[in-house]
Amino acid sequence: MIGGTRASGARRTAGKGRSRRAEATRKSGDERWAELLQVAAKTFASKGYSATTLQGIANDLGMLKGSLYYYIRTKEDLLFEVIQAVLVLAEERLSERVPVDGPAVERLEALVREHVVFLIEHLTETTVYLHEADQLSPERRAELPVHGFIARLEGLVVEGQEDGTIRADVDPRMGALVILGSANWVYRWYRPEGDLAPEEIADEIARTCRRSVEA
């Protein structure tokens, strides 16, 4: 009976996954969908999820509220789509720009640097993720592609301990979480009118993170 329950759950999950992939394919070339995500991200970031209404988003888009249901069913769906879109984009960016060879501590520094630059360049969307993801149900949060980044940081700490570039006394999991927390917090204090360019901020944060674990 336990095995049957798990199998049924797996089939339901697979069905949902196929349905969502089909929806994503349908929406991918839709300019109105891209505009909806952009407006929703700005509204969630400025007003917060709780104070945002679908009617308000529809008004900002100049469309009827009922037209939104062509794209999403609930406000939570829209929040999920905004967050998932920026996480997927971040993973693509990091995969393209972070080296896969060389001393682990140098690759960790490069990963943090690119991560911070991405956060700043996509400040609205990353603010929504970092500030509003808890508004999603546990089931929806579990679908977000976030665990791979933490595992990547943790793996670099382990590699660094093996190649001698990272101290042996650093707990890989704790070290990864501390580094991620330090990098992510930039969304709370960064201001475009500040004296430092995004790249300068990213360099400083990345160097600091590297020094915190370097052998």
Automatic annotation (TrEMBL):
Keywords: DNA-binding, Repressor, Transcription, Transcription regulation. It comes from the Bacteria. GO terms for molecular function: DNA-binding transcription factor activity; transcription cis-regulatory region binding. Residues 53-72 bind DNA. The keyword Ribosomal protein does not apply. Residues 1-27 are annotated as: Disordered. The keyword Kinase does not apply. It holds the Pfam family TetR_C_24. Residues 30-90 form the HTH tetR-type domain. This is TetR/AcrR family transcriptional regulator. It comes from Streptomyces muensis. The lineage of its organism: Bacteria, Bacillati, Actinomycetota, Actinomycetes, Kitasatosporales.
